[in-house]
């Protein structure tokens, strides 16, 4: 997990859904990593678990239609800025059949 | 060494594997695999024992899954499996084809990708998307999907693909240049007088006869066809069949004249087996005559369909034939369709069936 001095000033917390970490054995539900936007956070997750970005984002690029990212209770986009210490909730939408 | 037969099943909720010895009399089911993703096509490479799965998940998008231990463990990747930024993203992988060291993947919306590192990374074969007809391709009921990939056994530059509902396309230069190959196939859903377009036909399944790369068969939304010139011209082979509609087609592993189809009752009649009685229809003369094989199959109140990639043959002698239904039943014949038995039931909707024979 990234934890150098330079990045520690802007650490955020990513909370990952269980069905996502099932695809990446060893990934925890809670990850602290440096980021100032949602995009940077997802890039950081992808660096830790290659391929994770593709599961959350499509090639438009945008957060996938049936994935939801919430920051401070609001639905976020890749451009949403993250204050230090922000907790980011990544959730799967209700869908199925 | 004794043989092991694996029937690879893609379903709406994961992949399954039915396993038997070479006698194919007793089967054991394993699964679900691939984290319950919809698996549109699961294929095996008998030379290496690797299994590959084409998937697309509403939450997580497209990926190709891979197992190197006959399904015990799986990995997944979609690295490079994407169109350019701004284009409609890929929703799912629909079809896979293995040729020597390469793996091809057909996707939705229709496009073709290639991997030369066993599915770890992918590159787009852009020539197909650049065909002038691309802007006029229309989706079929399942979307604009590239569902059939047929490679040439001796020339890697030649590939045929089937796209619903753009038709059959062919490349002779490894995917740089493509041309439609639909002459003689109908599009009954177009206005009168426009039923034989250059492209826009709703091909449902495209297969190549063994040992004869010039001979292709296709099950179409509007008829069954054979081509003896690599798809340049198609002849109807639907005379003697109970309908002109169906989804899958499966060739015999050695006999270019033998083909198995599973006609359904029609595109607007429920898409069930005709008269609610299941039958596999077999020709041994390249479509001139047909025989219905139904011994052991449900002959009463069977309202099942069989989807485009859900029938296959194995490589044994006599050949095994397999199909899976929309209702989750998997049927097998160990003698080329003469006798059938249900080897699994109550599975999720079956999307694909393939067979792989490996050393036990």
UniProtKB/TrEMBL annotation, chain A:
InterPro entries associated with the record: Beta-grasp_dom_sf (IPR012675), Mopterin_synth/thiamin_S_b (IPR016155), ThiS/MoaD-like (IPR003749)
Gene3D superfamilies: 3.10.20.30
The protein, known as: Sulfur carrier protein ThiS
Organism annotation: Mesorhizobium amorphae CCNWGS0123
TrEMBL record, chain B:
InterPro entries the record matches: BNR_rpt, WD40/YVTN_repeat-like_dom_sf, Xyloglucanase_GH74
Keyword annotations of the record: Hydrolase
Classification via CDD domains: Sialidase_non-viral
Signal peptide residue numbers: none
GO biological process: xyloglucan metabolic process
A Pfam short name: BNR
The keyword Signal is assigned to this record: no
SUPFAM superfamilies reported in the protein's UniProt record: Oligoxyloglucan reducing end-specific cellobiohydrolase
Keyword Hydrolase tagged: yes
Superkingdom of origin organism: Bacteria
Molecular function (Gene Ontology), one example: hydrolase activity
Name of the protein described by the UniProt record: Glycosyl hydrolase BNR repeat-containing glycosyl hydrolase
